[in-house]
Write a structure and sequence with these properties.
Elements lengths: L1 H11 L22 H15 L12 H11 L3
Helix pairs in contact: 1-2
């Protein structure tokens, strides 16, 4: 799951250095995702992991995304 998330991050924000992505990396402050790339990431997560994200979900770090996916992924 972490590898697939990394692929999605690189797809929506190709300028990210994969070596800089860690679980504690903040999506905006550390990885530089803007609102457009953040929205694209959310759409890709929904498509890839076959889940519907709650409207109120907010991710600050890569780890937040992984925790959410582990808890809510389709079986």
């Amino acid at each position: 799951m972490e590898q697939k998330l990394m692929e999605l991050l690189l797809e929506v924000a190709p300028g990210i250095d994969p070596k800089e992505v860690k679980m504690e990396s903040r999506l905006q402050a550390d990885l530089g995702l803007d609102s457009m790339s953040g929205m694209l990431l959310l759409m890709e997560i929904e498509d890839t992991f076959q889940i519907e994200l709650e409207d109120t979900v907010r991710f600050e770090t890569v780890g937040d995304v992984c925790k959410y996916l582990c808890k809510h992924k389709a079986t």
